[in-house]
Amino acid sequence: MARTTSSPPIPAREISGRSRASTVLSSPGRAVTERVPSPSSSEGSRRIPEAPGALTPAQCLARWALRRSRCDPPPVSIRGPSTPILTHSNSEIEPGPPGLEIFAVYPPQGSPPATRSPSWSGMAADPLDSEARFELLPLPRIRLGRAGGPAFAAGLVTVVLLFATLGGLSSEAQAVWPFDLFFERGPISRRAAEVLADAIRIPTANPPGNERALARRYAAELRRSGIEARVIETPGSDGSPRRAAVWGRLRGQGDRPALALLSHLDTVPADPAEWSVDPFAGKVWDGFIWGRGALDAKGVGVSQLMAMAAIADADIALERDLVFLATPEEETGGRDGAGWLVENHPELLEDVGYLLTEGGGVKISARRESDSPPIWGVAIVEKAPCWLELEARGRAGHSSSPTPDAAVPRLVAALDRIRRVEAPIRVIPEVEQMFTALVPVAAEWDRAGYLYLATTLEKDEGFQRRFLGNPGQNALVRNTVSITVLEGAAKTNVAPASARAQLDARLLPGESCTDFAEAIRRVVDDESIEVRELLSFPAIASSPDTPLFRAIEEVAGRQAEPGLVVPRLIGGFTDAHWFRELGITSYGFVPRALTANESRRVHGIDERIGKETLVESIRLTIEIVRAFDRLESAESGAPRSSGANGMSEETRREAIADG
Hints:
- This protein has about 650 residues and is an alpha+beta fold.
- The protein has three domains: about 45-180, no CATH class; about 190-380 and about 540-635, Aminopeptidase (3-Layer(aba) Sandwich); about 385-535, Alpha-Beta Plaits.
- Strand 13 (about 285) and strand 14 form a beta hairpin.
- Helix 3 crosses helix 17 and helix 4 (about 210-225) packs parallel to helix 5.
- The two termini are about 45 Å apart.
- The model is unreliable at about 1-125, about 130-145, about 165-185 and about 640-659 (pLDDT under 50).
């Protein structure tokens, strides 16, 4: 497709007050400006560019949707296999053949930030500043030509229906909603709550997942900020809804290892009868966004997505690429989600050296008078899951005549033996490091125990009793097993031929699920009971001795209430292990402040997140990304790369400060 020719820089004029200008393009080379008063006006002025010569609707669409250079906007073609439906010559909208797909044509990746600037827009240094942004979007007057009004109306209906039914298009089709041309998008601080509410309204409870619609929603939001994005279909069981992941890449200027921001699209189920609000309504009320996934993990994905969008919109020059990745199927192990992607699409992780995902966050006290600082917990390793199924077989029959070899009693006896076994205590180095970092906030009588954890647990019975009495702490120093699923007869008066139970064991790093299953067989000591492995993977740690970890520490230290950064082992598991296995330094950390009570809503009833908490998470993510860039450059001794104007980032800031 041909590209439009470059036009000279656009002159600027002053628009007084808070009025909004819309430009009606009536003929080539001439623009008529109309004043549309705002509901309230105040003194002041902003510089808003003049519109250039007449643009076709496709060019206007490109200027907004692709957010590229105002001098050379790439064209957008809305087309079918052979015939375009948006005709540039006479601006008529004509129906095309069946099988239409919508493609947005992007400039080559790696273009300098100047070519990614929003057309006719301005942005202050703070990408979340709601008063800093303005936009002027051309509103073309579409001439009807010989076809007249009826043909135009019919064509417009065709386009609307096309955009409304994009679900049937291939995952690579890049859809653009044309009517956003006529509306300002609003600041990211407001859009974040809207995007999260929309995400909650797209149910992705797993099973069955059905994450494809949400993947498309995230991809569209990335593209609105000019970020390259793809929707990748992933495996689903036969007859199940189609599943998908979403990937985006914001290109930087340097050659530092890319940083990936990882979340997942699926959620655990929710029973509406147990909630005080509809868990899938995305209700925004009382300063909170309510619904399943608000915390785990749609809230994570939206905060990461909007942080990337803010960086792109503000043209913040980074030394590295940022990669957005949201996967399906995490809640059931991730084998057909993140696991499938790293195996089948390694190109998505090109040059990725670091990753941030769920698994840690900022823990704050619910008591205002508390002296404890916020705890910024960063997960550097997870316990390894070892999911097992036990199946007992026995004589089937009527339950009125019980037999000693019935399946259910045999299974119950085996589970009772498992329940009574307690694993030995083992303190791994990562846990020792974790509690050493917590010494400043420990009770005075426990500080020595935290400092010498392994020795004190072995020799001090009082400390051992206090420490192991906390279930969360107990799980950090030994293997644990929970009996979670039981299945027997379908009716009360039937003795079944088989009965099953499932165990969720979590193993310390270095332990083998195969060895643990063998130990369970020895404890059960019943040859009629089969022990099968359902899911397992190894626990791999990421070192905290990296510029990314130090960037988190720096950002935590400069907050109004400085935080204490603690490297952690967590008892649960996330998709991070798939990436640690590739050698990618992966931390479980979302800069989101929650009290212990708020954290308990994860997978629970009335899950919610505060709007201010969501916006603050976006701000802190941006701070961490920028601090990471600066620290790694300083530690390597390399100069900052230059921007499009030849200035380094520091020089540019100094020039701005000097006026």
